[in-house]
Amino acid sequence: MELTWEIIILQIIMGLALGAIYVILASGLSIIFGLLDVLNFAHGTFYMLGAYAVFVAISLCGNFWIAMVSAIVIVALLGGLFEITLLKRLYGTEPIYPLLLCFGFSIFMPDVIKLIFGLVGKVVEYPKIFQGAAFVGTLILPKYRIFLVVLMGVVLLALWLFMNKTDIGMIIRAATRDRLMVSCLGINVSRVWTVGFMLGVGLAALAGVIAAPMVQTIPNMGDEMTVESFVVVVIGGLGSLGGAVLGGLLLGQVVSFVSFLYPDWSNVAIFMAMAVILVVRPRGLFGEEGRA
Amino acid sequence: MLKVENINTYYGDSHILQDVSLEVHLGEIVVLLGRNGVGKTTTLKSIMGIEPPKTGKILYKGEEITGNQPYQNVQKGLAIIPEDRRIIPNLTVEENLKLGILHKKKKLNVAERFDMVYQYFPKLKLRVNQMGESLSGGEQQMLTIARAMVSKPDLMMIDEPTEGLAPLIVEEIGEILRRLQRDGATILLVEQNYQVSLSLSDNLRAYILEKGQIKLSGTSEELHACQDEVERCLGVKL
Ligand SMILES: Nc1ncnc2c1ncn2[C@@H]1O[C@H](COP(=O)(O)OP(=O)(O)O)[C@@H](O)[C@H]1O
Ligand SMILES: [Mg+2]
Description:
The structure holds two protein chains of two kinds. By secondary structure, chain A is mainly α. Chain A has a domain at 23-219. Chain A has eleven helices and two strands, in the order ααααββααααααα. A two-stranded antiparallel ribbon of chain A has the order 1-2. Chain A is globular and about 60 Å long. In chain B, 37% of the residues lie in helices and 26% in strands. The radius of gyration of chain B is 17 Å and the shape is globular. In chain B, a hairpin with a 2-residue loop joins strand 9 and strand 10 (213-219). Classes of the chains: A mainly alpha, B alpha/beta. The complex binds adenosine-5'-diphosphate and magnesium ion (MG).
């Protein structure tokens, strides 16, 4: 296929939309790692749960937007329950334990979903106003993809305001660097961890919700997303939110163009991109010295 | 106000604090002296709940607080000013102070407390929007004290506030401590510098730790009377 500039722009938009999903997903992973030191191997699982939650909510209420909010809230609450009842017990033990717990959850949960919903994929419709494409001259602009890019901007702005302008955001930033001192200033860090974990998986759920109309909603849809969100976070630099944003956008473009130009290579492209970046910058784009 | 009764604290298998007992009364300044590594910091950490003792009791305002989490003790009015200062590097000076008052935000007039702290530390007021990590050692020390003071604690535990600072700043910190003392603060101070600590107040009491045990205690006059013993414990000539 010939690579005209209309196609290039379309691919860039496709890449940005995919990048938006990566960015939202990986920001959540990055917050959880930065705050709790937990490598959340169940991140893609919460993404999958977001997609199923929005499917159920739409079939109950019929409205994409109400369903979107309820799906995020429900998955975040489930995440809170997971953190309080299971994860919290493992803080301060070997780092491998929380990792294994998350890994176990990522195997257990898709099976539960399989039992409830079966193996056949569920269809989530695009919200009405973002169906189809807008045409500007010879340019094709898929509405939903453009909406995702705008949504990413809104989410990042909201996240920035939350982290920088609220008390709880300030506590999260502080606890990310020195949790002991934060608790020595009279703050119950344990509760902050729950909030941070809920925020992180809430973002994963949002990513699942917005991805749902574009992909097959199947029980194992989260598995590869866990891996991909780790790739994004490693590219950006572990624990760095800015890194997650840049890494996500970069990966979106890589996947978009490689799968268009060299479809056979699309699965390995992201790992090749990661390898190249790690060779140049071993701690990732925004990685800090001294923080593993 | 604070009563520590026969606490024993361990790091793993090593028995650090051995039957340590001490008392601090309201409005008093009590100094904990001793050579490097005898367990002064561990004593403060035990009281705070960072390294809870295995046995023994800690009473604060008549209530047992042994085994409490640090944040619970802070909410009851204890404050710790750690030797490694632990300014939050990615927060501004103002945010560091805010973090210190958050747990009492509803009970205190925040603006008033900030004004009070800036009166003590006019230098910090010039740096409100600067990141914690960009401060000099002396400024960081002032911010740590300020961050503890801002919530109006009833008892401040201050760990080697003059360690590693230039003589001029040591003098400045000493002045701050004297002023705190005059304003009625209750302080448990860990200090290696015997002279600095004795200059803080006319009527202070001191405990001298040696290898995790309290070897000597008394008012500055009483300690003066057994100077040889003090010199031996501290390893200095006075
Ligand atoms: N986290 C720790 N783990 C193991 N041993 C420690 C730890 N912190 C301090 N120690 C040991 O405990 C003893 C007392 O230390 P510390 O209370 O810091 O002494 P001081 O404050 O009087 O210099 C020292 O021998 C030190 O090596
Ligand atoms: Mg010490």
